């Protein structure tokens, strides 16, 4: 974090502290408005449309290049790397013509993965996978890592490599809320 950002964060935190301190419960609290200047040049440091995809399939020496490539160009630039990493990693793609449960061979599947965006269905079910819909978005309760493991290691019917196809984390540690912000409160 650079010095300018630390300064803004410090001012913000101090204003919250001062605005919430009062000896008189009837005193009207005054909120301080801090105007921040966000001019400057910004750079993408990391892309992760689909959790773990970038982490697993992008070689260490290519991380910076992948993270600064716009998604529409990622497929052409990185699909072959993704495919090489997939076929060396997963026994489910050991033979030519092997497919996953979506019916995608290694080249087609890695072409999909190399464009690291989270697809969203605007007129259908939003889910990472619900047995029918696949990669149409992501609900909070979706078991994203297990779905990715199944698609990578599970073969054509999710039965290949069962020890590699599940992260064995089947639920959140706390129930999600039924209203915004939906995330469970921290411990």
Automatic annotation (TrEMBL):
Alphabetical list of Pfam families matching this protein: DUF4331
Top-level taxon of the source organism: Bacteria
Keyword check for Signal: yes
Keywords: Signal
InterPro entries according to UniProt: DUF4331
Signal sequence region: 1-24
Record protein name field: DUF4331 family protein
Originating organism: Polaribacter ponticola
